[in-house]
Amino acid sequence: MKKVLDKEIFESFASEITLELETAQALLGSYKDYESQDLLNKVFRVFHSIKGASGFLGTESVTELAHKSENLMAKIRDAKSCLNDNLSQLLLRVCERLSSMFSEMSQTGEESLIPVGDLVALLLKATQQDFDKDLSLDQKLEKRENQSTSQVQSIRVQLGEVENLLKLSSELTLLKNKLVARVPHWNEDHILTTSVRNLVSVTAQIQQLVMKFRLQKVDQLFKSLPKIVNDLSDKVNKRVELKLMGESAELDKAVVEALKEPLIHLIRNSLDHGIEKSEVRKQKGKSEVGHLKLEAYNTAGWFILEIIDDGSGIDADKVKNKALEKGLISSDQFHQMSEDQALNLIFQAGFSTAETVSDLSGRGVGMDVVRSTIERWGGRIEVKTKLGQETSFKLFIPLTLAVVPSLVVESGGIKFAIPRSDIRYVFNKSEANQGQFLKQQADGYYFEVQDGKHVPAILLKDIFQFSNEGQPSEAIWLSHQNTDCVIVADKIIDFEDLVIKPINSSFLDKPMYSGASVLADGKIVYGLNPAALFEHSGVGVASSSLNLESSKKQNFKLDSQFLTFCSGPQTCWGLALDCIVSIHKNDSGAVEKVDNAFYYNFRGQLIPALPLQLILGADCIEENLRSIIVIRNKESVCAILVDQILDTHYLQGHVQPVLGRPELSGVAKFDSQVTHILNTQFLFSKLEVSHSYQERAA
Amino acid sequence: MKSYLIFRAENRHFAINSSYVREATFCSDYSQLPFAKKHVVGMCNLRGDIYPVLYPWKMEQDGDCAQGRQILVQVGKTNFLLRVAEILDSQHVEDEFIENNQAPQEAKMYHGRFKSNVGLVEILSPENLLKNL
Asked: Which end is more exposed in chain B, N or C (fewer Cβ atoms within 10 Å of the end residue's Cβ)?
């Protein structure tokens, strides 16, 4: 007769044991660590813990299996020997059996009746064999003992309580917003103003601290991967070496769990369609063993996970052809589509068919689910590939899930929040003047974002079918998943940090919102979901831009590196390093002036050059232009002359858009210094205009 | 015997099983929600929590939805605010006095009716209301 388990005791042990088993499976799955005494100790500890827990639960078969495994580990450890393939496989089988038993027990609430006799017999037999001594391992054991003495003190807290704390801290942020909105009226009261400033600081600190409670090391996610990769590589008959980096990077616990499925999907795709079979790799001159690298790291409020394989890459043309064949894109779009846009087609829901997988040497099945999962957590995914060489998927997930920096706009009397991370530029009112910049084409609206460069535009009042009389007068340039679009709204309210709470999808016809939040005045604001908005409006893959390629987004959002320099009175400027070709000293004669146009002799070729101050509209320039920066865009190179190079920096936050400054991509802070980030496209347009004018004049 | 909260909307009388009712308050402003399903008129901030606002009756006069009372209803993990014109009474009713609705189970927003102190009332089924959004 099955024994009924004490639910409370079982639940208190079950989750811990499941984690312990995953740890053991991960350790045993990585052959290279067989000689590590650390591995022996860890696996020994797992079985020891399970034995203890099962003793409390009174599950005899589990206790017996764990006890025999523990004996085997103890014997190997005492003999100062190490694991081998057979022992490891046996212990993996034990782990799998124990997992099945715990899974059954958690479902039924009764003791598992899965037989263990076969494994117990094998464990006994293995324990009776002689193990060779490996005396060189003594020192390692000593080292481990020393390590175990310096443990960090900790307490266990229920996840629900942490979530309540997070909810309260989110409410505190809302209350702080309300108070801050009122402070200008009372700013004569010094004590109140100071108190509110302190409140802002303390609230931010509390929010960060509570978020930290929920953060979990990504090694929880990585633990199960060696075994998965081993199993999958056996299944597809390929040799693959897995390299895991950055296990200590942290991520919200809920996201760690949600990320598991998409990650396994990406790995499966890499092994199945990316990495070639040994013989094919050999023919291509690659190493016979394929490499799969997962690297996780935290940077500037983001968790980033890269999955890189050295397989065959994704053929963007094949992807485009397939999309055309399946009717996902028109023939016009087929011809206008850039490689990045073509690669993003793999995330289209229509691509997820078995036929796609067999026909394409690229990815496909379920990639839409991968992307939607990442986006559900406010993240994004980027794919890069070198045909025949490698493919990388880069997952960006915000660390702070609760607070979303947003721009609040209004249309038809309803307030909408646009995620600040997607905003590329906020046009001022005169720039957003519709007659001049907004053009209606047969397939929708387009907005002229720069001279002659148009991107699709979405009028919120049209999308949401508002019947307001007033003309929309604000334009916001968004860049989301390699798709650019201008949102046209009635009014810009303000930038605000919002606590976005999801809206139950059963109340919505379309997933147009990431959630809803309450503003300082108590009004509701809806967080716009750019992906759904674009899809609904036919922007992006389904819509062609007139000249989207040349208005592609500058990559300055996250871990981008910037060169800082000064030019003109007390101004610090910045340029993204990826658009800089080289930096030179401005020796006398390096820059020549011909008919009022400056040229720099760059590697034997005269390229347009101008002092930055002149580009920015100054009437005269100072004489101390000591440095020349050669910059490039897709088509050409040119040079700017500046006073002094300062330093290089990694971006530790967002580049904040600046209203009415087309020469700037925005402002950022480096070492407490506010830096104006130059818009390279603006520089190029000015240099081209200046030189074409001079050439025409000549 | 079950307890029902009896209310009026669009000049008709309805009842909801009290076990679904978390609280009843005066109406507060709601914000329209474009792309919402039918019966969902908007979202409302109730003491910092945001709830969908449902009005499942044909809007003959806007006043009932914009003013009056709102009932915070909980069905499983889903909460919503039901806008009504007026809350009339709370009444215990024996099952035998309830006349069942003969329409197919899934289709019926009202699963029965009974005679209350204010006259005949239709019993609103919150589950089916959510199913039929």
From this structure: N
Model pLDDT for residues A304-322, shown as the tens digit of each residue: 899 999 998 888 888 888 8
Q: Residue A518 and residue B30: Cβ atoms within 8 Å? A: no
Angle (CA) A418 A366 B78, round 5°: 55
Question: Which residue bears the tokens 């860049």?
Answer: A479
Determine the Cα–Cα distance for residues A540 and A525; give it in Å rounded to an integer.
25
Alpha-carbon distance A555 to A559, whole Å? 9
Predicted pLDDT of residue A551: 35
Amino acid at B20: Y
Which amino acid, A357? V
Residue of A581, A551, A550 whose CA lies nearest to A563: A581
The mean pLDDT of A125-154, rounded to a whole number, is: 58
Distance of residue A542 Cα from the nearest chain B Cα, in angstroms: 21
Amino acid at A680: T
What pLDDT is recorded for position A620? Answer: 66
CA nearest to A502 within chain B: B50
A253: CB partners within 8 A, 6+ apart: A159, A214, A215, A216
pLDDT of residue B80: 95
- DSSP codes joined into one string, A118-147: HHHHHHHHHHHS-----GGGHHHHHHHHHH
pLDDT at A299: 65
What DSSP state is assigned to residue A264? H
- Residue of B30, B38, B41, B50 for testing the chain A interface, max A β-carbons within 10 Å: B50
pLDDT cut 90: percent of chain B above it: 42
Q: Is the pLDDT of residue A29 over 80?
A: no
- Minimum distance, in Å, between the CA of residue B128 and any CA atom of chain A: 13
Higher pLDDT, B21 or B68: B21
Least confident of A148-152, A204-208, A472-476: A148-152
At A306 the pLDDT is: 92
Residue type, A596: N
Tokens read off for A490? 């009635």
A501 touching chain B per CB within 8 A:
yes
How many CA atoms lie less than 13 Å away from A211 in the CB half-sphere? Answer: 18
Look at chain B and count its residues. 133
Q: Which residue from B40, B43, B78 is facing A524, i.e. has the nearest CB?
A: B43
Position A513, amino acid: Y
Q: Residues A290, A311: contact at Cβ < 8 Å?
A: yes
Chain B positions in Cβ-Cβ contact with residue A506 (cut-off 8 Å): 37, 78, 130, 133
How far is A120 from B46, CA to CA, in rounded Å?
60
Joined together, the tokens standing for residue A68 give 């025999």
The pLDDT value recorded for residue A548 is 33
- pTM of structure: 0.50
Measured CA angle at A487 (ends A377, A397), to 5 deg: 15
Judge whether A516 is closer than 8 Å to chain B, CB to CB.
yes
Give the SS3 label for residue A311.
Answer: coil
SS in 3 state form for chain B?
Answer: CEEEEEEEECCEEEEEEHHHEEEEEECCCEEECCCECCCEEEEEEECCEEEEEECCCCCCCCHHHHCCEEEEEEECCEEEEEEECEEEEEEEECHHHCEECCCCCCCCCEEEEEEECCEEEEEECHHHHHHCC
Give the alpha-carbon dihedral of A212, A213, A219, A222, to 10 degrees: -90
> DSSP per residue over A614-650, as a string?
HHTT-SS--S---EEEEEE-SS-EEEEEESEEEEEEE
Those residues whose C-beta lies under 8 Å from the C-beta of residue B55, and which sit 6 or more positions away, are B9, B39, B41, B64, B65, B82, B83
Q: Residue A32 CB: number of other CB atoms within 10 A? A: 9
pLDDT value of residue A431: 60
How far is it between the farthest Cα atoms of chain A? 101
Q: Using the beta-carbon criterion (under 8 Å), do B35 and A464 form an inter-chain contact?
A: yes
